[in-house]
Fold:
Amino acid sequence: MRNQSLTAFKEPSLLQATIPLLVLICTLAGSVFLFGEDSSYGPNQIALWVAGAVAVVIGFVNNYRWDDIEEGIKEGVSVALGALLIILAVGSLIGTWLLSGTVPTMIYYGLELLNPSWFYAASALICGIIALAIGSSWTTAATIGVALMGVAAGMELSPGITAGAVVSGAYFGDKMSPLSDTTNLAPAVAGTELFAHIRYMVYTAGPAYLISLVLFFLLGLNVEATTTSALKLETMQLELTNAYNIGWEMLVPLLVLLYLAATRKPALPTVFFGALLGGVWAVIFQPELIEELADDGSAVASLKVVWMALTDGIVVETGSTQLDSLLSGGGMSSMLNTVWLILSAMTFGAIVEKIGLLQRLISGVLGFAKSTGNLIAATLFTCFGANLLTADQYMAIVIPGRMFREEYEKRGLDARVLSRTLEDSGTLTSALIPWNTCGAFMMGTLAVSPWEYAPFAFFNWLTPLIAMFYGYTGIRILHRDRAPHSPIHASS
Structure:
């Protein structure tokens, strides 16, 4: 029945396929120009809806009925449903881990690693640890990143190299964290599982990060050690110990989560269990903080604080604006804007896919991508182009993911190959583009232009290069006909 109805549809022209994309580019550019860093908090969603509406009109011109388009939207949004639920659970986990002292303890011990003689490498390492803990490159850059930029200024170090180290570390931790929205989105779009996706990303992200740390270490060999700037970090550690009970036992929720992930437990129950465990840990180890946040010291008031941490996160006041920003937040409600943006992006992608516009655009690209290497290279460049044109990393994941998913399936490639490739370029190159929301955020936060720090954001451009190398050599390319637990090795 479906095939019979398809015969009445007109094949879109190249001009028709291009119009919604041009509308999206113009509206997103206007969104970023008018609203700047706030463009992802509503304006970009409206831009996606406007471009989607234009695509619907083209669909009507080509004899598609609204029922057909609506069915495509439902199918498209359903792809991201699992990721959206995980993202909501992640919000709760962040809230209780902030309350329990798990995240503050990771920050405290991360700062212990900082030494002026290897400042650049330590900055990348610290930002990587913190971003892995909280799942946000933006929050890491806006808090610890800002602190590190201040320390670098006090030590008269290069702001460009320091910003490159912050961005490299923040994006490595974000990329490898199950708490990150983009790390959840990429496998959802590609059709694979979260923790399988993260494990597979190690093959590109791991070498790129290690090489980056070595390069930062070499750049810092001539840095002279000084003790004056260390006072800023010591002050931050003191403020952490004043606000929380810091100790290795606070890391138990993290270790439990890592164990469950390593033993391949489902992502959604794993993350939410981690959130609940964080709440229990908060009651046991942070009674003073809970009493301060509660109306009184009763058990009911403590339960309410934990409940609200799961729902709306927490607000901590230490006396330090930077530290308060780092330690306040979380909660399921904090993820609603991200859910809104992903739903809007998936809706637009589903519409243009349903009415054949994506297929029309991709046909020329696939004509070039005869080999697996060319296909992966085309995906990487398409993601980068989407970051350039749409100025949004979510679009740079969703649109190429929808475009290339069927082709990866036809060629027998495992869905993890696509999900990893989407992140290797779609997530990482966004911070290198000044007019992209990520690049604009980093520029506004670190006070360094992407033009200045991009050459030193080694991780962000090494990872796509390694992914392309794997594609052309066949190294670590997994096919669907492999057994699920067989070693991943070069394809034949």
